[in-house]
Amino acid sequence: MRQMVGKILKAYGAAVTLCQGVEEYAVFAFFQPVRSKSWQYLEGNYSPLGEIPRGQFVYIGPVEPAAQAGDTVRVDGKAYLLRRSELVRDGNGPVYCWGMCVEKGGEDNWGRQS
Description:
It contains 2 helices and 6 strands; from the N terminus they run αββαββββ. The chain has 114 residues and is mainly beta. The chain has one domain: Bacteriophage SPP1 head-tail adaptor protein (Thrombin, subunit H, Beta Barrel). A 6-stranded antiparallel β-barrel has the order 1-2-3-6-5-4. A hairpin with a 2-residue loop joins strand 1 and strand 2.
């Protein structure tokens, strides 16, 4: 499953840079904003991972290197702070890394009620 997800990320994901301290990694990942139109589908339906505040960006990337809270994701010349990340697993181990980001230098409404 992990190899299949890796192939999907490489074929359909965007080229992004994952910065972990002084290390930088070129990876393929899905990186999408959670916009108001998509937000209506989330209202009142919270996943086991909790509520997703508005103005956030979803990161779905490879297991290695696994993105961690506090890392920076650079996409199209903009930098985003990874606020939360988790490895998503199946019965055989980690399959991909899921995370939520906010744009660096922008209004950080992480944790604010929407």
